[in-house]
Design goal:
single chain; globular; 2 domains; five-stranded parallel beta sheet; 41% helix; four-stranded mixed beta sheet; 253 residues; Rossmann fold; alpha/beta
Length: 253
């Protein structure tokens, strides 16, 4: 359930084409539905402007399918994050229109039109090809949330001239998501070039002293470029949600 579907339901009741009892039947899944192993939050689209997202890691394929099925029945598009290929195959066998991105480890089922929201474009910038799983998680999530998204891959500080070739695109973005592993320097560089919100995403890519992304995380938290927001290690999804909310707020202002 989302605001546009709820308005449509209420208009049908107001116009007499839908009875109160039928409307109540459609709404009975709000605010959540107890499946025993999970409580599916059908009300989240009304509260937050985006439906519940299924975190696939740690769940069985059957649990993912059950949650996704209930979300689809309530009229929500489905996004499953951190889903491995084996579980994705089971999901696709059960839900034929599910799509899986092996780089991002994301599964999507899109049955409702994606409403375009936000003032401008979100640009997702990745430092290296090894960061692709996180950059794509961010980009695909942002697209599913109704944003126009542009990708800029493999422009890390080891060849910083590659970034400068995209200067105009960076300056025209409404929000930037900048993804980097190793020493995590790229968000600081981008933050020093643009007057736009920059959301930094450290990745777990790097040799031993990167400590699984901790070095990049600390570098981003200590950036000299003011105003950079930092999310958790490998959290492309969280960065995309934050960028979407910023982009929507700019549209509403």
């Amino acid at each position: 359930m989302n605001p546009s579907r709820l308005r449509d339901l209420l208009r049908q009741v107001e116009g007499g084409s839908l009875s109160v009892d039928d409307a109540l039947e459609r709404l009975k899944g709000l605010p959540f539905e107890d499946l025993g192993f999970a409580k599916v939050d059908h009300h989240r689209g009304l509260r937050l402007g985006l439906p519940e997202v299924v975190y696939g890691e740690g769940k069985s394929a059957r649990q993912v399918i059950a949650i996704a099925g209930r979300l689809l029945e309530q009229g929500a598009n489905v996004l499953v994050t951190r889903l491995d290929a084996e579980k994705a195959e089971v999901l696709r066998a059960e839900i034929g229109d599910a799509r899986y991105d092996e780089h991002a480890r994301l599964a999507t089922v899109v049955r409702q039109p994606i409403e375009k929201r936000g003032r401008g474009r979100i640009v997702v910038v990745g430092a290296g090809t090894s960061d692709l799983p996180v950059t794509e998680e961010a980009a695909i999530t942002a697209e599913l949330l109704g944003n126009e998204v542009e990708r800029v891959h493999d422009v890390g500080v080891a060849g910083i001239h590659r970034l400068f070739a995209h200067s105009e695109l960076l300056r025209d973005a409404a929000v930037l998501i900048v993804v980097a592993g190793m020493e995590g320097a790229l968000p600081s560089v981008v933050g020093g070039l643009v007057d736009r919100p920059v959301i930094a995403v450290p990745t777990s890519i790097g040799y031993g002293a990167s400590f699984g992304g901790l070095a990049a995380l600390l570098a981003m938290l200590n950036s000299c470029a003011p105003g950079i927001t930092v999310v958790n290690i490998d959290n492309g999804f969280g960065a995309a949600v934050a960028a979407s909310l910023i982009n929507r707020a700019r549209a509403d202002s």
